[in-house]
Design goal:
Elements (H helix, E strand, L loop, with lengths): L3 E4 L3 E3 L2 E3 L14 E7 L4 E6 L6 E7 L1 E7 L6 E7 L4 E5 L4 E6 L3 E7 L11 E2 L20 H5 L1
Antiparallel strand pairs: 1-9, 2-3, 4-11, 5-10, 5-12, 6-9, 6-11, 7-8, 7-10
């Protein structure tokens, strides 16, 4: 499925810790935009996919999330809980449907390989409760955006 994991090695001392998030040389495509979202526990964002080739680098900066990725052709699924208890960044090819559930209140960063164009958005959806992935969420009554309700 080509989801790439980047463990965030934390270098600790008496001040706290430092971790390198990513090196451009490790990525298949350059990052062109960075986005942040704050979500309450129980929110599911997605699943979304991009037909024009936008890939995402996901990192949970505070709290915990469950990332779910669906290969729409094969039905193969990838999932991992990331955040404070598992400091990992995930690179997700945007042709796969992807989203996350806030397992706790969280701060989440999306670093993406294409700039968002509101006049021609490349955002397509798969319902959160699609039979291939609905069993992966910890909630069966998520908090959804209007757009994700319609997917």
């Amino acid at each position: 499925m080509n989801v790439k994991r980047f463990p965030l090695r934390q270098h600790e001392d008496d001040r706290g810790w430092f971790a390198e998030l990513i090196r451009a040389s490790d990525l298949p495509k350059p990052i062109k935009q960075a986005n942040l979202s704050r979500s309450r526990q129980g929110v599911i964002r997605g699943l979304h996919y991009h037909e024009r080739g936008q890939d995402d680098l996901f990192v949970c900066l505070d709290g915990m999330v469950r990332v779910v990725v669906l290969d729409r052709e094969s039905g193969e699924v990838f999932t991992e809980d990331i955040g404070v208890d598992n400091p990992v960044a995930l690179y997700v090819p945007g042709v796969h449907a992807h989203g996350y559930e806030a397992l706790t209140d969280c701060l989440f960063a999306y670093l993406v390989t294409e700039e968002y164009d509101p006049s021609s958005p490349d955002e397509h959806g798969v319902p959160w409760d699609d039979e291939r992935i609905r069993h992966l969420w910890s909630t069966q009554s998520p908090i959804l955006s209007a757009r994700d309700t319609l997917s």
